[in-house]
Amino acid sequence: MATISRQQITLTGMTPSYTAANSGGDKCQPGLTTMLLIHNDGAGSDRTVTIDSVRASDQGEDNDLEITVANDATEWVGPLDPTRFAADADGLVAWTYDDHTDVEVAALFF
Questions:
Q1: Measured between alpha carbons, how far is 77 from 58 in angstroms, rounded to an integer?
Q2: CB of 45 closer than 8 Å to CB of 14
């Protein structure tokens, strides 16, 4: 599992730098202004990204967040609230991919 550095969105704009998805998943620092930008450049296949939730819902269930990213599409995901998603021992939010092939990700915050 690789740790991805967050990139700051500024008032004057920014161009995100993507990182290739890691086969074992990825992680980053969570935050109330932290978002993931996930791009699927796959060969005709959707990809599912699962973000590990560590807090039970008000129904008592631990509901991981699953996002389907269509082929040749980009999804914005967030904010990544640390009280729900900080699963790692070092306080990072972790996610996995059903298939990391042709997937790129960027962690952004403002």
A1: 22
A2: no
Tokens of 54: 């560590």
In this prediction the pTM is: 0.90
Farthest CA pair distance, the chain: 43
Q: Comparing C-alpha atoms, which of 7, 29, 28, 30 is closest to residue 83? A: 30
Provide the mean pLDDT of the chain: 92
Write the CA distances from 30 to 3, 8, 43, 55, 101, integer angstroms.
12, 13, 30, 14, 24
Rounded average pLDDT over 11-25? 95
- What does the alpha-carbon distance between residue 85 and residue 81 come to, in Å, rounded to a whole number? 6
Residue 87: closest CA among 61, 53, 60: 53
Cα 9 from Cα 14, distance rounded (Å): 6
Phi then psi for residue 84, to 5 deg, are: -100, -35
- The full set of domains in the chain, from first to last, is 2-10+17-109 (2.60.290)
